[in-house]
Amino acid sequence: MDVGATWIRIAASIGERRVTTTVVRADRDLRRLAPLLRAIWRRRSWRGRDVAALVVASRALWTPRERRALALTLRGLAWRVEVISDAQAALLGAIGEGPGVLVLAGTGSIVVAHDGRGRWTRAGGLGPLVGDEGSGFWLGREWLRTLGRRGDLRAVLRFVHAPDAVARIAALAPRVLGRARRGDRPARAIAREGQAQLAAYVRDAARALALQAPVHLSWAGSVLEDRWFRSGLIRAVARAGVRARWRPPAAPPVAAALRLAARLAR
């Protein structure tokens, strides 16, 4: 199961045969996940003693303490419960079980790396207030700063004071990247800085785990679906001194969670 910002995607299988994939609206508060899943179990007539393994891949989880705390609330839903971060699931889906690095840039951003032997590290991913460089929010915020320097305070304040400010500012990213592609100098400078920040995180993560070159790299998130921005990131990673082998994501995060659940169920 992959838990996103406001939706969860549930994939279930019996043996090697997938039997259902469901997408339901969820709450960002992970404390409400257990009651939601119990309600789904009742609707599906699933009993905890009949479910061999449940894997939850969610945002806002990284430390063992955070993962254990959520797993405890899910007791009784399956014989075995495993909780991982959504970024870890994204890497396992994109690259597989071997060593590699995933760059994730959507509304927020994070770089995660795995050495293929159980060790993980991350760089960035500190949220919109102090981090998320190269993300949709960061691109939009930097563009609003440009508008502010030009004196367009009315436009800036309209976004800053919106009740959903982070989402609305992040939604500016395609516009910023479009301007950058067309040669707008301030927009292009913003994009390049974002690429350089993400590339530095890739370098730091690869060094932390002593990954051997060429480092397997993949990507996820709406910002990196933009081919122009992604090409610039690939060049920035090379300039940062990382010899990389890039490849498109092999599978979505929910597929990785399902694969892990199948392994736990053996």
Structural commentary:
The protein has 266 residues and is α/β, with parallel strands linked by helices. The chain folds into two domains: 2-92 and 252-264, Nucleotidyltransferase, domain 5 (2-Layer Sandwich), CATH 3.30.420.40; 97-246, ATPase, nucleotide binding domain (Nucleotidyltransferase, domain 5). It is 44% helix and 21% strand. The chain contains ten helices and ten strands. The chain has helices at 33-44, 64-73, 86-94, 136-149, 153-160, 165-170, 173-181, 185-208, 227-239, 253-264; strands at residues 2-3, 7-14, 17-25, 53-58, 80-85, 100-105, 109-114, 120-124, 215-220, 244-246. A five-stranded mixed beta sheet has the order 3-2-1-4-5. Strand 1 (2-3) and strand 2 (7-14) form a beta hairpin. The radius of gyration is 20 Å and the shape is globular.
SSE order and pairing:
Blueprint (H helix, E strand, L loop, with lengths): L1 E2 L3 E8 L2 E9 L7 H12 L8 E6 L5 H10 L6 E6 H9 L5 E6 L3 E6 L5 E5 L11 H14 L3 H8 L4 H6 L2 H9 L3 H24 L6 E6 L6 H13 L4 E3 L6 H12 L2
Parallel strand pairs: 1-4, 4-5, 6-9, 9-10
Antiparallel strand pairs: 1-2, 2-3, 6-7, 7-8
Helix pairs in contact: 3-10, 4-7, 4-8, 7-8, 8-9
